[in-house]
Amino acid sequence: MEIKLLPFFVILPMLGAFVILLLNALIKNEARYTITDILSNVIVFILFVLSLSVWNKTGFYIVGGWRPPIGISLILDRFSGFLLIIVNLVAAASALYSVSYMSRYTARRYYYALFLLMIAGMNGVLLTGDMFNLFVFMEIATISSYALVAFGTEAEELEASFKYMVMGNLAGAFILFGLGLIYSRYGLLHIAQLSSLIVERDPLVKFAFFLFLAGFSVKAAIIPFHAWLPDAHPSAPAPISAMLSGVLIKALGVYVLVRIFFVLFPEPLVRTLFLHLAGISLLAGVLLALGQMDMKRLFAYHSISQVGYIMLGFGLGTPLGVTGAVYHLLNHSLFKSLLFLNSGAVYYRTGTRDLEKLGGLNQVMPFTGASTLIGSFSIAGLPPFNGFFSKFIIILACWQSGHPWFTLIAVLGSVLTLASFLKVEKFAFFGPLRQEWKDVKEVPVFMISSMVFLALLCIATSLLFLPGLREKILLPAAEAALNAEAYRSILP
Amino acid sequence: MIYFFVFLLFAIGLYGVCCKRNIVKMIVGFTLLDYSVFLFLIMIGYRKDGQAPILDRKSLLDVFVKQSVDPLPQALVLTAIVIGLAVTALMVALAVRIYERYGTFDITNIKKLKG
After folding, report:
1. In this complex, do B110 and A230 lie within 8 Å of one another by their Cβ atoms?
2. Total domains, chain A
3. Which residues of chain A lie closer than 8 angstroms to B44, CB-CB?
4. Kind plus residue range of the DSSP H or E element containing B11
5. Is the pLDDT of residue B115 over 60?
6. Would A177 be classed as within a structural domain?
7. Domain-located, residue A456
8. Domains in chain B and their CATH numbers?
9. What is the tens place of the pLDDT at every residue in A423-466?
10. Does pTM surpass 0.95?
11. Cα A19 from Cα A25, distance rounded (Å)
12. d(CA A136, nearest CA chain B) in Å
């Protein structure tokens, strides 16, 4: 079925980015700030509503009327539709939060333009059915994220951005090289058509396989390729950290890894590699997080370990494991973006992220304190919150498919996560209020509403564990991720 | 043979990125790395004594298919060059700002972040 709506997920934010810059060049008085805020929020909200409207649909759109292999096509299946909702949901929350948070920065027009370009890139990656097009959208999203990481132009931020850029560019070069190898062998770039042609024994294809694995693992920050993440994510402004940790590493990293490797290279080696890389990231990420005293840096290390959980679920390859992975993907983007927004709220009022300098903030910032508590409990996997159920499914799937060591690692990781979040709560929010934070007030209403919205969703999504909802929402996405045959048959 | 040189260029670029301590030299390394990949893509479409891939009314289709070069890699390379341009411009801009803040291009001295 052709869906005419699909290109608008890319067109709308891209158009918005240019319109914002144009309007800011035309209008010179103070009104332009308000217009910029309203315009970008409206665009992001429309995108969210659009993504809800294509939920659980499959379809395609042929760009310019040229059918593949000649032209480019956009393909929507239930897995990419699920991620589309997550991306635009977190984007909507971050945009609302930015209204107050970014008022302290100069050059807000560039911020919103880059923000919208990043969303355009991510939506494009999720929808495209063409390998080279995927590369282009990925570069759009990453280049705008390089600029956003360096947005504060302080010494640390520039350094982090340069480090991110070095790793990201190497990954980009590897992926382009791999694309060239695949094209030279088959003369095709359309993912679905390639998948029926690729022969795994071909040494050229093997080489491309490892180039892709290295390239996309950098984007997903899986552990031997993670070095950029703990610098880049804390350095960005808080709403951008929420976007980077919450959705960028999943849309560009996890989604593409799963899509490319499950559709193009469906061999057992892929799952074994995923499992082992995931196990290492899970444990090492949480161990590195334990020692951190910078709030955002601690959260950034947890992103590595939580992506480990997601990849563990996908690596198992059983329906239960993939369901858990899809569920954890949703949950992680909710609670991790919530936690980054909370750390931004603390920074907004106190001007520090150092846990040793904070203390007792619950007394002066009740909304921030409460939503951080919900976020911490969710990520640590305490029972009534969403993180518990998704981790439970993944651990159960590990046990059922006969991987006792990975079960042990997953349980251990969860315990250590709880330990490090108890540390955050104890240092920053509980205990006696320090003298210098006596006059601290709660953050403005836009920031509160965005945080409360995500915190409520953290509780609401735990209902997805119930059998009726699980079969309606999570299982179709998981089946679509596993089933390469269904992906091939979408475009007739 | 020519592929060997492409790989050599790729390796030189990789060496420049990984082993040089000066940021400007790293950027030059990235340029080399990108260009080796572009060259590789162009080489895929190359055909000796080929003609330009423009189909006009006079040419016969089967002769055209045999003689013309593959136009798609050229389109890909054009796109990739534009992306490379954006990345290089951003990198150079960052390098200038880093020099303003740290007063050096040496990456061993640029290490305020750790942990």
Report:
1. no
2. 1
3. 180, 183-184
4. helix B2-19
5. no
6. no
7. yes
8. 2-49+64-112 (1.10.287.3510)
9. 888 888 888 888 888 888 888 899 999 999 999 999 999 888 88
10. no
11. 10
12. 8
pLDDT (0 to 100) of residue A280:
92
CB of B40 within 8 Å of a chain A CB? The answer is yes
Interchain CB contact of B12 with A (< 8 Å): no
**Residue A265 region by backbone torsions, left for phi larger than 0, else alpha for psi between -120 and 50, else beta:** beta
CB B80 within 8 A of CB B98: no
Q: How far is B58 from chain A (nearest CA, A)?
A: 23
Q: Do A294 and B115 touch (CB under 8 A)?
A: yes
CB contact under 8 A, B34 and A177: no
Distance of residue A9 Cα from the nearest chain B Cα, in angstroms? 21
What ipTM does this complex have?
0.92
Domain-embedded: residue A77: no
Q: State the average pLDDT over residues A122-147.
A: 93
Structure tokens at A12: 């709308």
In a domain, A16, yes or no: no
The residue range of the domain holding A467 is 267-484
